[in-house]
Amino acid sequence: MKKGYPRFFLLPGLILLIAIIIFPLLFTIRVTFSSWNVSQTGLNFIGGENWAEMARDTRYWGSMLRLFYLSFLTVAIQYALGFAIALFAWKGIAARRFFRVLWLIPMMTTPSLMAIIWRSIFTEDIGALNGLLSRAGLDPVNWLTESGPANVAITIAEVWQWTPFMFLILLAGLLSLPKEPFMAAAIDGASAWKTFARVTFPMMAPISIGAIMIRLIDASKIFDSVFTMTRGGPGNATETPAAYIFQRSLQDFQIAYGSTLALTYLILAILTLTIIGKVFARLSKPRGI
Amino acid sequence: MFTKKVKTLLAVALPVALAASVVVITPASAGGTLTRTPGQEVSYKPYGPEYANVATTKDGNDACSWYNTSKKDYSGKTLRVLTHAIPNMGKPTALHAKQFEELTGGKVEVEHASFGDLYAKQLRSFQTDTNQYDVVFNGSYQIGDFHSFYAKVPDSVTKGNGSLATLTPLYKELYKWDGETKLFGIDADRHFLKYRTDVYENAAAKAFYKSKTGKELAVPKTWKEYNQHAKVFNGYKPAGQPAGVKFSGTTEITQKGGLMFGAFIDRVAPYAKNPNVKGGFWFDENMVPQVNNPGFVAGLTDFVEATKYMPVGGKNFDLSKEIESFGRGDSLLSYTWDDAWSKSNEPTSPIKNKVKAAPLPGAEKVWNRVTKKWDTPKGGVNYAPYIAWGWSSAVTAASPAKAMAFDYLCFWANEANHKLDLTIGDMGVNPSRTGDFTSDFWVKEMNWGKPAVDSWLSTMQNYEKNTNRVFDLRVPGVSDYMTAMENGVAKALAGQATPQKALDEVAKEWNAITKRVGITKVKSAYQNVIALEDNIR
Amino acid sequence: MYKVLKATFITVWSLFVLFPIMWAITTSFKPESAVVNGATFIPFLEFQPSLIGWKAILPGPDSITNLMTPTLNSLIVTAGATAISLIFGSLAAYGLSRFTYGWKNYSNADIIFFFVSQRIMPPVVLAIPFFLLLKQLKLLDTHLGLILVLTSGLMPIVVWLMVDFFNALPREIDEMAMLEGCNPIQAFFRTILPLSKPGLTVAGMFCVIFGWNDVFFALTLTATKVLTLPVAVIALNGTVTPYWILAASTVFSIIPLVGLAFVIERFLSRGSLGGAVR
Amino acid sequence: MSLILKNVSVSSDKDGVILDDISFEFKPGRIYILIGRTTSGKTSLMRAIAGLLPIDSGEITMNGENFDEKPIWERDVAVVYQQFINYPNKSVLENVEFPLLRKGMSKTEAREAALASINKVGLSDYLDRKPAQLSGGQQQRVALARSLSRKSQIMLLDEPLMNLDYKLREQLRVEFREIFNSQKDAVTIYATTEPPEALILGAEILVMHEGRIVQHGSPTEVYEKPQSTTVARVITDPPMSILPVSISNGEIRFGDGYAQPIPAKMKNFKEGRYQAGIRANDIEIAKSGGEKGTISLVEVSGSETLVYVDTPSGEIVLQMEGIHDVKVGESISVELPSNRLFLFETNGALCVSPDNAGE
User: What are the distances in angstroms from CA D306 to CA D92, D193, D291, D297, D324?
Assistant: First the structure.
């Protein structure tokens, strides 16, 4: 076929996207070699100073490590819970439509606004949670000022916000599964658990991988909940790269250094996600569908 | 599928938008709609039910009075204003914009932003030559970052019968950069101590204190005493405690990014600001940061100790939480900005007439960075109040409508408006003019308690006279310095580092910032701060 | 046993989902005193409900902010970005599903990854360059400017979803259309597009959700003219956090999207979402 | 004026060669039957002609025009797939009208032609149904009606009856023959795996194997004189039994055992090893002697019984009229009449075929 037609489909989108993104990307690369900050405006050239500084920046690398467990943990929980409620909402539940709508709602809320609501829930003096605890005669928990509970609080907010995304994708996947393998399993007299392990789960592998990848991408940008609820505190105990980069770039206005951090983050994220994607692809292959 | 929706939407939206623009344009074409006579009464009542209980006052004789402003015609002209969120500054800015539009026929577009965004938005506009705003609001400590983008305030405003002519001398200085007035000062803030009289003036509480410590209870003169009082009364139940509210020792700003640096400076200053050492509080003559000297470390050590006596959640309080917490009666002591004070004086306050003001505590020793020794201060206590920044505004240098912009700001802060704004607590306008410091106004018009008002006014006058004061680090990159400092302090408060180690890291970071911004730039800017610190101007 | 576990799980999860929403709704009816003096839960018993929060954001004499114009702005921007993302994204996805593109060693999979990877960049970093870009294009504080920027984040979602969706549609259909005299473009618009409604609906819904909920770009790239709803709400965050007003605004701003949850559920029940995500 | 393929080749990385140097001239007004195993390249050849499969080398011309330069949508090729492909969102009538409107017919013309065509396939009562609301056979008839109504110059049918039930197949086969014959100017190519279908439709048969056309000719020609064991296997149903034989001393011997005198036709052949093929219906159960073996499978189909016998020489399939009571595992002797034998070289090339082999 002539090349024109394939191009007609791909190129407008690709070109539009590149046109939107190319300048910001090139600019970001260029600015990392300058010293653009609050008092030095513009693109001078200072070589690799920002990069050298970043290599020494323990706060940055600390936030990176934190992101690893925070994003993997939250996405893993979201996936497990999302799968569980998707299975429940799939069949054999009374008032199915009611529950489906209810469980979708968190995804519809604005994360940055919900983060404020979550802050008002976790706030230690007038928050809902400590209010409930005190009514139950329990001691208040330092939700936002102790490293452990603060991480728990952020995890809870993230799980609440994004489990419905997993739920929706997985439920839609379940609803589109062919019926035959289930009949075969039923004829073989497989137990519910076996049917899940041998039929449902493997058939859901590709869709699961897609959903997990997209969630990982978004989860790696965890920002709203962290910034609104703890500002990365106590100390730096909940600071993620996105929050740290925000602090550097927009609060301290270290455009150049912030961009260096961000570019590094971007490269690492792409590398990590590529590797994860390859691993997933390999894991899912032998069972294949 | 969506295009259809967009079409329907536009079909609805366009007529609405057109109608709206007609409404705006109509008065403009005829000039101002409001006519005024000299000395006519000024009332905010027409501007909404929230102003129903606001007093009225006579129009002033100043250059920007309502009457004088009504003579101007800015029909067809537009001002772009960037201000803080409602209500603090956001509310008066929007109100005075509406009034200004009615008086002059001009248009004033107001954009609201949170404090962090306020800084980022204007800096972005300036650095990229985007020229988005004519008038911007800011914290006056940021002058080092912004001065070159601001227009000089004309003499007509600062002198004669201009709006800023009656600013106290100290504040006139604070709004200058290199001798030129660059900021339009509409507010002046001080940090001072707030304490509960139902403890400090209560016999039972005094006896309780004596039984615990063997000492007489008096308003704390040093931070050590402050901490001790906080410790003793943490969990105590004062006579006037509002029902259902637990009592704790101290409420402070502890959240990084929540203006915590102000609280830290308050606690550190008397340990580190030595009246006998001239030439720099923040840096020495060679621009070596002092932020990790033993004076700072001593202050931080106190701060860390105090976290034990804070209310639940107190380790994560920003300014708003501090106001809220002290305002509802959570604690014995608090300090920093005026807001918690105003809050506790409101008619509905659960601790009304149970709070008094006093100067910030001092220290029983003060570090001498020259001799590297602790000095014992004259009179046993070294006081070093931090003259915190307040709200200010400015007209941008690139603005094509400077005259109109200054007229707007001048009107904003005219005699009548200033007087009324002072009475509206959440507007964020605090006493800053010579006329603001008479107790009559507060007692009669605001219905505040006289003892409280007297303690407050005398505290502020004390600051005007004190010669051992600490000022903000008014240099380029001040936000960088402050966030770096806050980050270190936050780590120490969270127990992730010892005060010494945390501040050593800050010092390292500060050196990096100085290098990044340029040592000569910072040094020359810092000379202006030293002039304030050492009372040279 | 299993049934008890399942019922417990469903109950606990539903309560967990409801809790913040109920908290936001009750808070929106609290007077200031019921917020700042400790947690209160039960109206009338623990606090006297008040409309102060709602009055502050709805048109009327007590209004402190106008949320109607921001709502309209949000609608325009969301609809615009969704439409552009759907059109260009589904075209690209169709191409990637049906044709083989190659440039050096890069294959279709790499191109898809390129699209999806646009979501990796944290918006924080793009704020300044986008600001400069829109300034140059004179698109700061315009609907179009914000729409373009949002498109860069939404199109990847459309491509990701629609590639899979088109892969699930039999190729023979478009081949048939071509054999019957349609060029690929006509084949796409006349035969594939009408079949893609479920997929486009799902992709469109994700776009609407992510577009509507964007705060960062709207905050950075707009000022007074294109103030969007979430930004208008966040700007209410003053020196003292007025939780009652913020809660009312939050509830206000999620109502339109909760309507979407019903739409999505209807699609689910009809089973027409199925192919959309495979 | 005809469709000419010259040295057409297609290869792919995954499956190796798909089409291997195919040259053929298809004449208008004729029906060509492509027969071959499932992966022999029938579908690929059709896709290449339609333009759906780009060719690597060679040339396709139609009426002297180079087809390669014409995109699919300008080639005017009608295709009926083995799967029932219709537009799921269009009704029966809209489905059939669609290509006609694309061709530029007016609305009324298109409707008329579509109705006629739908009538032909007997779906006049289902005009407004969506394809999903029809049975498989009905769906395939919609697809047929759509292709037929176009009156294309080239019509390709890729095992169109494959997924239909027996009765419908029989019926449609007959109809096809009429329909195809009425299309005087069109090249019709019909792919099938089933030899009887090829025979019923008549016309010219092209036998495909591993991407090549291995034999072409009239049905009787191909059936009587399969030029190789491959063709013999493909064209014969039930499959021809092919066994190693040797000729020596005037005898033809199967494996090591059963031998018969050589028929007259083979007299001139050298002694040595050959392969012998025999059709199932030519084999009989031996009353005495014959090749001995064990029954491995019995299939009853209609009024005939197929018996698969394992012998030392290889598998033999015999077909018997009527239903017979034979059991798997029983020993049996079969007679392989020497005058019904096809003789092939060991490399598979035909040496000699029996007289009246088509019967």
Answer: 42, 19, 17, 8, 9
Q: Model confidence at B537, in pLDDT bands (50, 70, 90)?
A: low
The CATH number fitting domain C68-243, selected from 3.30.465.10, 3.40.720.10, 1.10.3720.10, 3.40.50.300: 1.10.3720.10
Mean confidence (pLDDT) of chain D: 84
**DSSP type of residue C59:** S
Which residues touch B486 (CB under 8 Å, ≥6 apart)?
A: B256, B257, B260, B261, B264
- CB atoms A273 and C99 under 8 Å: no
Both tokens of residue C23? Answer: 């908290």
Which of A8, A16, A116 lies nearest to residue C250, judging by beta carbons?
A116
Question: Hunting for tokens 């101002």 — which residue is that?
Answer: B32
Q: Do chains A and B touch (3 or more CB pairs under 8 A)?
A: yes
Of residues C270 and D238, more confidently modeled: D238
- pLDDT tens for residues B28-73? 333 678 888 888 899 998 888 778 888 888 898 888 999 999 989 9
Of C173, C179, C182, the CB nearest to D77: C179
pLDDT of A175 strictly over 70: yes
Residue A261, domain member (yes or no): yes
Chains contacting chain C through 3 or more C-beta pairs under 8 A:
A, B, D
Tell if the CB–CB gap between B311 and A140 is shorter than 8 Å.
no
Beta-carbon contacts of residue C185 (< 8 Å; ≥ 6 apart): A5, A8
Which position has the higher pLDDT, D210 or B305?
B305
Instruction: Please report the number of interchain residue pairs, chain B to chain C, with beta-carbon separation below 8 angstroms.
Output: 102
Nearest one of B362, B390, B498, B394 to B184, comparing CA atoms? B394
For an interface test with A, the pick among B516, B520, B523 (most A C-beta atoms closer than 10 Å) comes out as B516
Neighbours of chain A (3+ CB pairs under 8 A): B, C, D
Residue D56 has pLDDT above 90, yes or no: no
Interchain contact, D87 vs C172, CB within 8 Å: no
Q: Which residues of C touch D74 (CB under 8 A)?
A: 181
Q: What is the CATH number of domain B41-186+391-429?
A: 3.40.190.10
The nearest CA of chain C is from the CA of D153 a distance in Å of 12
Domains of chain C by residue range: 2-50, 68-243
- The answer to whether B447 and B458 have CB atoms below 8 angstroms apart is no
pLDDT score at A2: 58
Fold of B193-388+465-533: D-Maltodextrin-Binding Protein; domain 2 (3.40.190)
pLDDT of residue B12: 47
Instruction: Report pLDDT digits (tens) over B109-149.
Output: 998 888 878 888 898 889 888 888 999 999 989 998 899 99
What are the residue ranges spanned by the domains of chain B?
41-186+391-429, 193-388+465-533
CATH number at residue A118: 1.10.3720.10
B252 near A CB under 8 A: no
D abuts B (3+ Cβ pairs < 8 Å):
no
Are D61 and D6 a contacting pair, CB within 8 Å?
A: yes
Q: Which chain D residues are within 8 Å of A2, Cβ to Cβ? A: 71
Q: pTM score > 0.80 for this model?
A: yes
Domain count, chain A: 1
| Cβ pair D51:A1 closer than 8 A | yes
Please answer whether residues D19 and D8 qualify as being in contact, where contact means their C-beta atoms are separated by less than 8 angstroms.
Answer: yes
Mutate to test the interface with A, among C5, C19, C125, C263 (most CBs of A within 10 A): C125
* Domain boundaries, position A212: 57-284
Which backbone phi and psi does D24 adopt, to 5 degrees? -165, 150
> Partners of D321 in the beta sheet?
D304
The predicted pLDDT at position B23 comes to 39
ipTM of the complex: 0.81
Tell me if C250 and A113 make a contact (CB, 8 A cut-off).
yes
**A77 lies in some domain:** yes
C207 and C156 Cβ atoms separated by less than 8 Å: no
Count contacts between A and C (CB, < 8 Å).
273
